[in-house]
Every structure is written in structure tokens, then in C-alpha cells.
Amino acid sequence: MNLFQNGDGLLIIDVQRDFCPGGALGTNDGDRIIPVLNQWIQQARHMGLPVYASRDWHPLGHISFKAQGGPWPPHCIQDSDGAEFHPALRLPDDVVKITKGVHFDHDQNSVFDETGLAEQLTRDGVRRLFIGGLALDVCVLASVIDARKAGFEVQLIEDATRPVNEEGGRKALSKIKESGAEILTTAAANNQQTQTCQKAPEWAEHARFEDTDLPCDDGRSGKI
What we know:
Blueprint: E1 8-13, H1 34-46, E2 51-56, E3 96-100, H2 117-123, E4 128-134, H3 136-149, E5 153-162, H4 166-178, E6 182-184, H5 186-191, E7 194-196, E8 205-207
Parallel strand pairs: 1-2, 1-4, 2-3, 4-5, 5-6
Antiparallel strand pairs: 7-8
Helix pairs in contact: 3-4
């Protein structure tokens, strides 16, 4: 797997105990995405690229909880075990953490909703995000849509996410495609061949999706 290039970042959304099987709002097979995400984390760190991880961090009695008229049972309450990242997720020491869901008057499904993440990504030189996490049809969907609105390229890692339910997952994938984001799998990434770019050696190795008879720098060098 070597799809990463300079200007990429890996964004992991809400892989917390409460969103995995056995948690307060567990997603079916949610923990099965963790070995997949660990592969992507390892590759991102090998390439020296930034890794970002969001977490819900709700106060007691949050507006999204059913007792307050919201759609969800209490989950990811601040400082609780359920709010912790899943222990099998191998986040690097320098991971950038994004805390959301802290407002008393509204929820924050998207990691871009009043968090300043778009500005931080721009400061970090990130132009394209690879995204996985939980849940596909809620926070992942909202985050992908907002990432596209903010002007970032997006690659959703399909096998690194799970929906709350299958119908919601199908609808989410359709909306993600409509947003202009691309959808890939780890298996497809592993099958991509890497080549050396002749036009822009600073992008020394990267995956080639098409035009295999031509040198390619994907337009980032400004030399085309």
C-alpha cells in the first residue's frame, strides 16, 4: 500500500469504545475496522504524514441524548471509559486529536463543525484526506461532506468504516460519491503499482491510476 503522497493526511473518526461492539452505541463489526486503520496509520507514519483522530466528548445530559430529546442513548461522556479511543487502535504519539460534541446547544457530527480543523489542515499543508472511522452514515458522512465543501480532496477507505445500519450505509456511500469524494478499499490500494515520476521528482513515488504511458505528477508541482 503506497497511495500516500506529500500533502496527504489520515483522518480517523470516532473509533471509541462506545461506538464499538459492547459499547453504549456500538456499531456492528465496528471493531473490525481497527486492524485496517492500523495498516493505514503505519503507512502514514512511514511516509511522515500527519494523522488526525476525532472523538465525541459529550457533557452529561448532552442535547443529543434521548432524555434531552435527541436521537441517541448517552454515549462518549467526558472522562468515561466509553469515551476512550479503542485500546487496539494504535494511534501515534503525535496524533492530532479533535474533540467534538462538547456544545450544550447542538451536536457536532462533522469533525469540521466549529473545531477549526480546516484551518489546521491548511497550516499543515494537507490537501487530500484519507478517511475512515465510525459511523459511516453519521459522523463519517458529515465529515466527508464538510471536507469537500472546504475544498479538500477526499478518499474514503470503505473497509475502514461501518454504518449504523445497512440502508443508511448505502445512502451514505451514494451521498459521498455525489460530493466528489472517491471511495477505495485497502485491497485495491495494495494492488496499486507505484512508479517514479519524471516530471516532478519531489513526488518521487506515488500510485498511478491511469495514463500509465505518461509521466505524472498529478498537477501538484506546477510543471505541467
